Amino acid sequence: MWVTAEEEAQLLVRAEREGVTVPRLLVAAATSETVETPTERRAVIVELMALHRLLASVSNNVNQIARHANAGDEFPQDAKAALAYVRQVAQRIELIIDGINT
């Protein structure tokens, strides 16, 4: 495939920005169903991994609240805060999924 000097310069700049080779950039562009770049894809993966860690932390908090409630003690006041946090994490997940699907 032949490209002009200007096109080659643009490819080199974009490949450098994306952290990939020019051939990898071209293959990704040609095989992608979306206009998503490798950098954007990595950012989504990083965000999903962060959300996974947050959900693990929330799960631990919910288990502690349930254990406390099952022990017959009063329902903890911080339960409302924990549930609000769960809702925030769920909303973040929905936003990311919406972003992936658009």
From TrEMBL:
Highest taxon above the source species: Bacteria
Domain spans labelled Bacterial mobilisation: 55-94
Pfam short name (any one): MobC
InterPro entries in alphabetical order: MobC
Protein name: MobC family plasmid mobilization relaxosome protein
Organism: Arthrobacter echini
Species lineage: Bacteria, Bacillati, Actinomycetota, Actinomycetes, Micrococcales
